[in-house]
Amino acid sequence: MKRKNLLGLILAGGLFILGFWMNGNVSLYFNFSGILVVVSGTTVATLLSFRMEQLKIVSKVIMASYRKPIKTETEIINILIDLSIKSRIEGILSLQHEEQETSILFLRRALGCLVDGYRAEQIREILNTEMYFFKLRREDLERVLRTIGEFFPVFGLIGSIIGWVTMLGGAGGPLIILKAVPIALTATLYGLIFANFLFLPFAANLKERTNHELLLQKIIMEGVIAIDSELNPVILTTKLESFLTPSDRQSDLVSYAKIKERFHIQAAEKERETEQVVEKELDRTSIRIER
To answer: Are residues 231 and 262 both part of a single domain?
Structure first.
């Protein structure tokens, strides 16, 4: 997790807890029975819905998404430009060493296809297939997280119903009724907190990271195919920078003076000025003749 995100999480979490603290007795918001109903019910529903292997994969991906930083688009473009220059100087087979050194699995696979002599159409087809199933796998994991996030409020409501039934039934006298009130009120609270503070944000983070990785994979695919066609590194840089936002691009925009020079705009403007001067002189001459 980035440092700014972590600081924001601590600050927002502290303010959230402060909101409970300012409303009076904090111990009223803690109830072990409510937590037990919500957590155990959600756990049972999750185990009945998904395979254990799938849940292990979800936990690993979530841990990796917060622990392992992902490369930026600019870093990927710089890597591809270096590879392009190296391939033009030392030959395309020199990229085999880069295939073993890079830490990006998709880039390694793309370079592997390039080194093995696949045609550009074959490389594009293989990498598009890789991207398609990568997206499907990530969407499946996101679905698991969102489903678990939907379980929590439901079992929070079940815990509240248990508490209200006990309270309204009045079984055991006033003491039992008073003990049931916190369960009825806090179980729903726990369900909403677990869903909206943990699992739904986990799913949103996974979706955002997946979109970022798909963009990087698209850049890698276009860059590797361009390297295979021996595209000029300068042209390759301009092409790959199209994936970046204008603020992240290193190259400056072409000046207006160069645009005017290239399209002869300045000459056209002078011609217009000359025509305007001639028209004014003709008007003046016609006025004098009339007089």
So the answer is: no
* Predicted structure pTM score: 0.74
Same domain, 144 and 116: yes
Domain count, the chain: 2
Whether residues 90 and 218 fall in one domain: yes
Range of the domain at 271: 256-290
Convert the pLDDT of each residue in 213-222 to its tens digit.
Answer: 999 999 999 9
Q: How confident is the model at residue 133 (pLDDT cuts 50, 70, 90)?
A: very high
- Asked whether residue 130 is domain-assigned, the answer is yes
Q: Name residue, tokens 């390039």.
A: 114
